[in-house]
Write a structure and sequence with these properties.
heterodimer, A: 219 residues, alpha/beta, Rossmann fold, 5-stranded mixed sheet, 4 helices, 7 strands, B: 134 residues, mainly alpha, Serine Threonine Protein Phosphatase 5, Tetratricopeptide repeat, 2 domains, 6 helices, elongated
Chain lengths: 219, 134
């Protein structure tokens, strides 16, 4: 009887040892939905941008094209290049004929283009700050007028399939930044503003991944 | 006599526990079949290899819930949403009560809903633009 019991116990433990998990829980980075699947393309051509307003001494077209080129090169596995292809009117973005000459033979080229404007102005700001109460001073907070340098970047970005002229993605951005430094350079301000655009534009476009959990089955 | 039997049983139990621990220590997570090999590959982030293995499983067993489920996860990982949906649906058809497949599909659907929302927004945006033009 005891021998049988022992055999059963042995059998139980052996079975327990042999039976593994039925699933494996994994954490994986899953790409979110993107209206444009960059993986389907071999190259991205960045054309000139239609510049409607830019501070003196700043080549905004060059800055925008270079910025996007650098950012895309970081994540896109294919070729990214800039081709001087001037855009002279707003309607060009919707005009399929404009983009057909840029199509590649393989049809796996994507065109990035758009419109850009960077404006700067000096604004006066009323600042109020509490002061120490002394006998001579009033109880109201001190008011002071100070000047601020304000830059606004307006950017419209288009992703176009050149062979069909179809606009795959169009996003408009308007970002403003304020500096206390009145001598703030426009190219520095552009880069600060472009960073903000990058976050909004590249996250869905490049499919920046999100950590999620899934179960893989083993049997 | 009774003491002896209790002692013997305790010894057996003790030995069994030791053997069990040894089993645990010696067993590595070595894949032993195509399905597990795929899981092993997926854990090493080798998703193409994993897909290859799970497809192989389906060739020999087209009704393998595990292979369909795992393939769906792999397709999700590489961004093939439609393929992932198909595989999940097959897995759920084969095993509607499988809680792991159900959990995966629920998370997948949540992602898909946000995708559909984005698509709708894009359509509406285009419609508005066309209306403005007219």
């Amino acid at each position: 009887m005891i021998k049988n019991c022992s055999a059963l116990v042995w059998l139980f433990f052996l079975l327990a040892a042999c039976s593994g998990d039925t699933y494996r829980k994994i954490r994986l980075d899953l790409p979110p939905f993107s209206p444009v699947r960059l993986a389907d393309y071999d190259e991205i051509l960045i054309t000139d941008f239609l510049v409607t307003k830019a501070p003196e001494g700043l080549d905004l077209n060059k800055e925008v094209a270079q910025y996007f080129k650098l950012e895309l090169e970081k994540k896109f596995r294919g070729n990214v290049f800039h081709l001087p292809f001037p855009i002279d009117r707003d309607e060009a973005f919707q005009d399929a004929a404009t983009w057909k000459p840029l199509a590649s033979a393989s049809g796996s080229r994507l065109v990035m283009t758009g419109k850009a404007a960077l404006s700067q102005e000096t604004r006066k700001a009323i600042l109020s700050r509490p002061v120490r109460r002394t006998e001579e001073e009033t109880l109201s907070p001190a008011k002071k007028i100070e000047e601020r340098r304000v830059f606004t970047l307006e950017l419209s970005v288009y992703l176009i399939r050149p062979d069909t002229g179809e606009v795959l993605l169009h996003r408009d951005f308007k970002e403003t930044i304020t500096y206390t430094n009145l001598q703030q350079r426009a190219d520095f301000a552009f880069h600060d503003l472009a960073q903000r655009v990058r976050v909004q534009f590249f996250r869905p476009l490049l499919g920046e991944e999100r950590l999620q959990e899934r179960y893989l089955l083993l049997r | 006599m009774l003491r002896l039997t209790v002692k013997t049983t305790a010894m057996f139990l003790g030995l069994s526990l030791i053997v069990l621990f040894f089993f645990g220590a010696c067993s590595t997570h070595r894949p032993i079949n195509q399905l597990e090999f795929g899981v092993w590959a997926a854990e090493k982030d080798l998703w193409e290899e994993a897909i290859f293995r799970w497809k192989k499983v389906l060739l020999s067993d087209p009704n393998s819930v595990a292979a369909h489920n795992n393939l769906a996860v792999a397709y999700e990982k590489i961004g093939l949403w439609e393929e992932a949906r198909k595989e999940y649906e097959i897995a759920l058809k084969l095993a509607p009560q499988n809680s792991w497949v159900k959990a995966n599909y629920k998370s997948f659907q949540a992602n898909l809903e946000s995708a559909e929302k984005a698509k709708k927004e894009k359509k509406e945006e285009l419609k508005k633009k066309n209306d403005k033009k007219l």
